[in-house]
Amino acid sequence: MANEALYRQLSALPLIRDGKVQVMTEMLSNTEQAAQDFVKRNNIPGKLVVAKETKNLDFPIYGTPTLFLLDTKGVVTRVWSGEIKGTEVTDFINKLSS
């Protein structure tokens, strides 16, 4: 599964555990239950938004998965599309901490 290592790191970050950084996962799925099962099975933290079509999502998805970094006003400051590997994982974690 793409980004499995990143999901594990996210759920362990104190900023996320302590609620200082909020995580939202948008997922395309035919059923809400399938999406919830996936999130639970992979220990993905935060709020889950599920839609059957991309036009029904809060943020556009450019690939699967797509991760968004938002500032405190809810403005998207960075987007990662597709699998995040190597130094991109470190970059993502560092952006959360800055």
Structure in words:
There is one protein chain. The protein is α+β, with helices and mostly antiparallel strands. The protein has helices at residues 4-12, 14-17, 32-41, 87-97, and strands spanning 24-28, 47-51, 66-70, 76-81. Helices cover 35% and strands 21% of the residues. The model has no long low-confidence stretch (mean pLDDT 80).
Q: Give the overall silhouette.
A: globular
Radius of gyration, whole Å? 13 Å
Report the order of strands and helices: HHEHEEEH
Strand content: 15-25%
- Which structural class fits the helix and strand makeup? alpha+beta
Helix content: 25-40%
The number of helical runs is 4
Q: How many strand elements?
A: 4
Q: Could you report the average pLDDT, rounded to the nearest whole number? A: 80
User: What is the strand arrangement across the widest sheet?
Assistant: 1-2
Low-confidence stretches: none
Distance between the termini: 27 Å
For the largest beta-sheet, the strand count, sense and barrel status come to: 2 strands, parallel
What is the topological layout?
Elements: H1 4-12, H2 14-17, E1 24-28, H3 32-41, E2 47-51, E3 66-70, E4 76-81, H4 87-97
List keywords for this structure.
21% strand, 4 strands, 98 residues, globular, two-stranded antiparallel sheet, single chain, two-stranded parallel sheet, 4 helices, 35% helix, alpha+beta
